[in-house]
Amino acid sequence: MVNVLSKQGLIKIFIDPGHGGKDPGAVGNGLLEKDLTLKIAKRVKELLAAYEDVEVKMSRTGDTYPTLSERAKTANVWGADFFLSIHINSASKTSTGYEDYIYTKASAKSKEYQKIIHAEIMKKIKEYGVRDRGLQTGNLQVLRTTNMPALLTENLYISNPDEAAILKKAAFIEDVAQGHVNGIVTAFDLKKKKADDKEYHTVVKGDTVTKIAKKYGTTIVKIKSWNKLDDKYTVRIEQNLRVK
Protein backbone atom coordinates (compact mmCIF):
# COMPACT_ATOMS: atom_id res chain seq x y z
CA MET A 1 0.00 0.00 0.00
CA VAL A 2 1.08 3.57 -0.66
CA ASN A 3 0.95 5.95 2.26
CA VAL A 4 -0.74 9.08 0.89
CA LEU A 5 -0.57 11.74 3.58
CA SER A 6 -3.31 14.32 4.01
CA LYS A 7 -2.58 18.00 3.51
CA GLN A 8 -1.59 18.23 7.17
CA GLY A 9 1.09 15.57 6.62
CA LEU A 10 -0.81 12.96 8.65
CA ILE A 11 -3.10 10.02 8.01
CA LYS A 12 -6.31 10.96 9.80
CA ILE A 13 -8.24 8.01 11.23
CA PHE A 14 -11.73 8.63 12.62
CA ILE A 15 -12.94 5.96 15.06
CA ASP A 16 -16.64 5.68 15.85
CA PRO A 17 -17.59 3.53 18.86
CA GLY A 18 -21.16 2.54 18.06
CA HIS A 19 -24.13 3.73 20.14
CA GLY A 20 -23.58 5.36 23.57
CA GLY A 21 -25.49 7.42 26.11
CA LYS A 22 -29.24 6.91 25.83
CA ASP A 23 -28.66 4.27 23.14
CA PRO A 24 -27.15 1.09 24.64
CA GLY A 25 -27.11 -0.71 21.31
CA ALA A 26 -27.50 -4.47 21.57
CA VAL A 27 -28.02 -5.87 25.07
CA GLY A 28 -27.46 -9.45 26.11
CA ASN A 29 -25.88 -11.82 28.60
CA GLY A 30 -24.99 -9.04 31.02
CA LEU A 31 -23.31 -6.88 28.38
CA LEU A 32 -24.09 -3.58 26.64
CA GLU A 33 -22.86 -3.01 23.12
CA LYS A 34 -22.06 0.66 23.82
CA ASP A 35 -19.57 -0.32 26.55
CA LEU A 36 -17.78 -2.91 24.43
CA THR A 37 -17.47 -0.68 21.38
CA LEU A 38 -15.94 2.08 23.49
CA LYS A 39 -13.43 -0.32 25.07
CA ILE A 40 -12.30 -1.59 21.68
CA ALA A 41 -12.18 1.89 20.13
CA LYS A 42 -10.12 3.37 22.96
CA ARG A 43 -7.63 0.53 22.72
CA VAL A 44 -7.36 0.95 18.94
CA LYS A 45 -6.56 4.62 19.49
CA GLU A 46 -3.95 3.82 22.14
CA LEU A 47 -2.24 1.23 19.93
CA LEU A 48 -2.15 3.58 16.93
CA ALA A 49 -0.25 6.11 19.05
CA ALA A 50 2.83 3.92 18.55
CA TYR A 51 2.92 4.80 14.83
CA GLU A 52 4.29 7.77 12.93
CA ASP A 53 2.28 10.21 10.82
CA VAL A 54 -1.15 9.19 12.10
CA GLU A 55 -3.75 11.24 13.95
CA VAL A 56 -6.84 9.73 15.55
CA LYS A 57 -10.15 11.33 16.45
CA MET A 58 -13.12 9.60 18.07
CA SER A 59 -16.83 10.32 17.73
CA ARG A 60 -17.16 9.83 21.48
CA THR A 61 -14.76 9.13 24.33
CA GLY A 62 -17.36 8.54 27.05
CA ASP A 63 -20.96 7.45 27.53
CA THR A 64 -22.50 10.03 25.21
CA TYR A 65 -24.70 9.74 22.14
CA PRO A 66 -23.70 11.68 19.03
CA THR A 67 -26.36 11.13 16.37
CA LEU A 68 -25.43 9.21 13.24
CA SER A 69 -25.52 12.48 11.29
CA GLU A 70 -23.21 14.14 13.82
CA ARG A 71 -20.71 11.29 13.62
CA ALA A 72 -20.48 11.50 9.85
CA LYS A 73 -20.40 15.31 9.83
CA THR A 74 -17.58 15.43 12.39
CA ALA A 75 -15.48 13.04 10.30
CA ASN A 76 -16.23 14.95 7.10
CA VAL A 77 -15.43 18.37 8.56
CA TRP A 78 -12.22 17.04 10.11
CA GLY A 79 -11.15 15.70 6.73
CA ALA A 80 -10.61 12.11 7.84
CA ASP A 81 -8.81 9.73 5.51
CA PHE A 82 -10.64 6.72 6.92
CA PHE A 83 -13.80 6.18 8.98
CA LEU A 84 -14.02 3.10 11.23
CA SER A 85 -17.26 2.32 13.05
CA ILE A 86 -17.02 -0.42 15.69
CA HIS A 87 -20.07 -2.50 16.66
CA ILE A 88 -21.16 -5.76 18.29
CA ASN A 89 -23.74 -7.93 16.55
CA SER A 90 -27.00 -9.35 17.88
CA ALA A 91 -29.58 -11.79 16.52
CA SER A 92 -30.40 -15.22 17.95
CA LYS A 93 -28.72 -17.19 20.71
CA THR A 94 -27.08 -19.38 18.07
CA SER A 95 -25.82 -16.62 15.75
CA THR A 96 -22.03 -16.52 15.60
CA GLY A 97 -19.07 -14.83 14.01
CA TYR A 98 -17.34 -11.71 12.78
CA GLU A 99 -18.25 -9.64 9.72
CA ASP A 100 -17.74 -6.13 8.42
CA TYR A 101 -19.58 -3.77 6.09
CA ILE A 102 -18.85 -1.15 3.47
CA TYR A 103 -21.45 0.95 1.65
CA THR A 104 -23.28 -0.79 -1.21
CA LYS A 105 -21.83 1.80 -3.62
CA ALA A 106 -18.45 1.96 -1.91
CA SER A 107 -15.33 3.26 -3.57
CA ALA A 108 -12.53 1.00 -4.73
CA LYS A 109 -10.48 2.20 -1.75
CA SER A 110 -13.19 1.13 0.70
CA LYS A 111 -13.25 -2.31 -0.89
CA GLU A 112 -9.48 -2.56 -0.73
CA TYR A 113 -9.30 -1.47 2.91
CA GLN A 114 -12.13 -3.83 3.87
CA LYS A 115 -10.27 -6.84 2.48
CA ILE A 116 -7.08 -5.91 4.32
CA ILE A 117 -8.67 -5.09 7.68
CA HIS A 118 -11.02 -8.08 7.58
CA ALA A 119 -8.10 -10.44 7.03
CA GLU A 120 -6.02 -8.93 9.83
CA ILE A 121 -8.88 -9.06 12.35
CA MET A 122 -9.60 -12.69 11.55
CA LYS A 123 -5.92 -13.55 12.01
CA LYS A 124 -6.06 -12.19 15.56
CA ILE A 125 -9.37 -13.73 16.65
CA LYS A 126 -9.39 -17.11 14.90
CA GLU A 127 -7.85 -18.72 18.00
CA TYR A 128 -11.18 -18.10 19.77
CA GLY A 129 -12.96 -20.28 17.21
CA VAL A 130 -14.71 -17.30 15.65
CA ARG A 131 -16.68 -17.97 12.48
CA ASP A 132 -15.77 -15.78 9.50
CA ARG A 133 -19.06 -14.40 8.16
CA GLY A 134 -17.31 -12.67 5.30
CA LEU A 135 -17.15 -9.23 3.71
CA GLN A 136 -20.55 -7.54 3.54
CA THR A 137 -22.12 -4.45 2.01
CA GLY A 138 -25.04 -2.41 3.32
CA ASN A 139 -26.86 0.89 2.98
CA LEU A 140 -25.86 2.03 6.47
CA GLN A 141 -26.07 5.74 7.25
CA VAL A 142 -22.56 6.28 8.61
CA LEU A 143 -21.12 4.50 5.57
CA ARG A 144 -23.37 6.29 3.10
CA THR A 145 -22.89 9.84 4.43
CA THR A 146 -19.14 9.88 5.08
CA ASN A 147 -16.94 11.36 2.35
CA MET A 148 -13.97 9.07 2.87
CA PRO A 149 -13.42 5.29 2.70
CA ALA A 150 -15.44 3.79 5.56
CA LEU A 151 -15.83 0.43 7.27
CA LEU A 152 -18.19 -0.86 9.97
CA THR A 153 -17.09 -3.92 11.94
CA GLU A 154 -19.43 -6.32 13.77
CA ASN A 155 -17.40 -8.09 16.44
CA LEU A 156 -19.21 -11.27 17.53
CA TYR A 157 -22.78 -11.72 18.80
CA ILE A 158 -23.76 -10.36 22.19
CA SER A 159 -26.93 -12.47 21.93
CA ASN A 160 -24.96 -15.72 21.90
CA PRO A 161 -23.97 -16.83 25.44
CA ASP A 162 -20.75 -18.44 24.22
CA GLU A 163 -19.65 -15.39 22.26
CA ALA A 164 -20.72 -13.08 25.09
CA ALA A 165 -18.33 -15.05 27.32
CA ILE A 166 -15.55 -14.34 24.82
CA LEU A 167 -16.47 -10.64 24.73
CA LYS A 168 -16.06 -10.52 28.51
CA LYS A 169 -12.41 -11.54 28.22
CA ALA A 170 -9.86 -8.73 28.40
CA ALA A 171 -7.56 -10.79 26.18
CA PHE A 172 -10.16 -10.85 23.42
CA ILE A 173 -10.74 -7.09 23.60
CA GLU A 174 -6.98 -6.65 23.25
CA ASP A 175 -6.74 -9.08 20.33
CA VAL A 176 -9.67 -7.70 18.37
CA ALA A 177 -8.39 -4.15 18.88
CA GLN A 178 -4.95 -5.24 17.70
CA GLY A 179 -6.55 -6.84 14.65
CA HIS A 180 -8.19 -3.53 13.73
CA VAL A 181 -4.86 -1.75 14.21
CA ASN A 182 -2.92 -4.29 12.17
CA GLY A 183 -5.39 -3.80 9.34
CA ILE A 184 -5.09 0.00 9.43
CA VAL A 185 -1.29 -0.21 9.65
CA THR A 186 -1.18 -2.48 6.59
CA ALA A 187 -3.74 -0.49 4.61
CA PHE A 188 -1.97 2.82 5.16
CA ASP A 189 1.59 1.51 5.35
CA LEU A 190 2.14 3.07 8.77
CA LYS A 191 5.58 2.89 10.37
CA LYS A 192 6.35 2.35 14.04
CA LYS A 193 7.86 5.27 15.90
CA LYS A 194 11.52 4.86 16.73
CA ALA A 195 11.99 2.93 19.92
CA ASP A 196 12.60 5.03 23.00
CA ASP A 197 11.70 4.98 26.65
CA LYS A 198 8.81 7.39 26.27
CA GLU A 199 5.29 6.35 27.20
CA TYR A 200 2.04 8.11 26.41
CA HIS A 201 -1.46 8.32 27.88
CA THR A 202 -4.65 9.29 26.05
CA VAL A 203 -6.73 11.64 28.20
CA VAL A 204 -10.30 10.51 28.91
CA LYS A 205 -13.17 12.18 30.72
CA GLY A 206 -12.41 12.53 34.43
CA ASP A 207 -8.63 12.50 34.02
CA THR A 208 -6.51 15.05 35.84
CA VAL A 209 -2.76 15.48 35.66
CA THR A 210 -2.53 14.42 39.30
CA LYS A 211 -4.43 11.18 38.65
CA ILE A 212 -2.38 10.45 35.53
CA ALA A 213 0.91 11.11 37.34
CA LYS A 214 -0.09 8.73 40.13
CA LYS A 215 -1.09 6.03 37.64
CA TYR A 216 2.30 6.09 35.90
CA GLY A 217 4.46 6.72 38.95
CA THR A 218 5.68 10.12 37.85
CA THR A 219 5.13 13.74 38.91
CA ILE A 220 2.83 16.48 37.68
CA VAL A 221 5.87 18.72 37.19
CA LYS A 222 7.43 16.26 34.74
CA ILE A 223 4.16 15.82 32.84
CA LYS A 224 3.79 19.59 32.63
CA SER A 225 7.32 19.97 31.29
CA TRP A 226 7.15 17.11 28.76
CA ASN A 227 3.83 18.33 27.35
CA LYS A 228 4.28 22.10 27.73
CA LEU A 229 1.11 22.44 29.80
CA ASP A 230 -0.04 25.78 31.18
CA ASP A 231 0.22 26.70 34.86
CA LYS A 232 -3.28 25.32 35.47
CA TYR A 233 -2.22 21.91 34.13
CA THR A 234 -5.02 22.04 31.55
CA VAL A 235 -5.54 18.90 29.46
CA ARG A 236 -8.23 18.01 26.94
CA ILE A 237 -10.04 14.78 26.19
CA GLU A 238 -8.23 12.69 23.52
CA GLN A 239 -4.95 14.54 24.13
CA ASN A 240 -1.90 12.25 24.03
CA LEU A 241 0.31 13.08 26.99
CA ARG A 242 3.85 11.91 27.47
CA VAL A 243 3.95 10.30 30.92
CA LYS A 244 7.43 8.74 30.96
Automatic annotation (TrEMBL):
Q: Which Gene3D superfamilies match?
A: LysM domain, Zn-dependent exopeptidases
UniProt-listed Pfam families: Amidase_3, LysM
Q: Spell out the PANTHER family in the cross-references.
A: N-ACETYLMURAMOYL-L-ALANINE AMIDASE (PTHR30404), N-ACETYLMURAMOYL-L-ALANINE AMIDASE AMIC (PTHR30404:SF0)
What is the top-level taxon of the source organism?
Bacteria
- SMART domains reported for this sequence: Ami_3, LysM
Alphabetical list of InterPro entries matching this protein: LysM, LysM_dom_sf, MurNAc-LAA_cat, N-acetylmuramoyl_amidase_3
- Any GO BP: peptidoglycan catabolic process
Q: Which UniProt keywords apply?
A: Hydrolase
Tell me the protein's name. LysM peptidoglycan-binding domain-containing protein
Can you name one GO molecular function term for this protein? N-acetylmuramoyl-L-alanine amidase activity
GO CC annotation terms, alphabetical: outer membrane-bounded periplasmic space
CDD domains per record: LysM, MurNAc-LAA
**Residue intervals of the LysM domain:** 199-243
